[in-house]
Design a protein that fits this description.
By secondary structure, this protein is mainly α. It has one domain: Orthogonal Bundle (Catalytic domain of cyclic nucleotide phosphodiesterase 4b2b), CATH 1.10.1300. It is built from eleven helices and no strands. The N and C termini lie far apart (48 Å).
Length: 229
């Protein structure tokens, strides 16, 4: 399904029929398609939405969806709406992209007349992606797992992701970037579990730890490990 059609279908399911919805979706997709979006791009948006689609089946197999069909639909629609907006504002020179993205969502949601409880839940999910910490509810855990699934991608894909992040931070001098990036990646690696649902853990945890270990190991240590093999 084209992104534009997926956007319109989501709002239709939510019972919102504002004539401004199609044009808003086109503008959002255009934001993700900007020239400075090396990783936080349209491809990333497509990927997290694909991960959400995968989760709908995977979470059933791991018996993590003890909800009614209607409750499941509402939860996944809430997550999808949050994924659409979670990186819509992205400037690597800013520290509050998630907050700006959340505020844009709330502006649009109020204009469209979206249910206030849904607005509150989506805003909370967007805020959660600022650090990916404190994901407690099933909905929150699915949201962060979808966003972090790239960490568990096959190594060539992970390496491309890592290189694209560097391009987005091209304005940061190499020493400072390496120190900051190392801190971020080791932060994930030092968590007991990177992925908070069983389905994502089973599918991505092992590869994510291998990718992060390789990315955070110094060149000297890599040479020593190769020498001692």
């Amino acid at each position: 399904m084209k992104l534009e059609d997926r956007w319109n279908d989501l709002w239709w399911r939510l019972g919102v029929q504002s004539p401004d919805i199609p044009a808003t979706g086109i503008r959002l997709i255009a934001e993700y398609s900007g020239p400075d979006r090396h990783y936080h791009s349209r491809t990333h948006l497509e990927d997290v939405l694909a991960k959400l689609d995968w989760a709908k089946t995977a979470l059933l197999k791991t018996a993590e969806l003890p909800l009614t069909t209607e409750a499941q639909r509402e939860m996944f629609d809430t997550i999808e709406l949050a994924l659409w907006y979670h990186d819509v504002v992205y400037d690597a020179k800013l520290k509050n992209n998630e907050a700006l993205s959340r505020d844009l969502f709330l502006t649009h949601a109020a204009h469209f007349g979206l249910d206030e409880k849904m607005q509150e839940n989506v805003a909370k999910l967007i805020d959660l992606t600022a650090s990916h910490k404190n994901a407690a509810s099933l909905m929150e855990r699915i949201m962060t797992d979808c966003d972090l699934a790239i960490l568990g991608a096959p190594k060539p894909e992970f390496d491309q992701y890592d290189a694209n992040i560097r391009k987005e931070y091209a304005h940061v001098p190499a020493p400072a970037y390496k120190a900051g990036r190392h801190k971020v990646l080791t932060g994930f690696l030092n968590q007991p579990y990177i992925f908070k649902t069983q389905a994502f853990h089973d599918a991505y945890e092992k590869q994510a730890r291998a990718n992060l270990t390789a990315a955070t190991t110094s060149p000297i240590r890599k040479l020593l490990r190769r020498f001692h093999k």
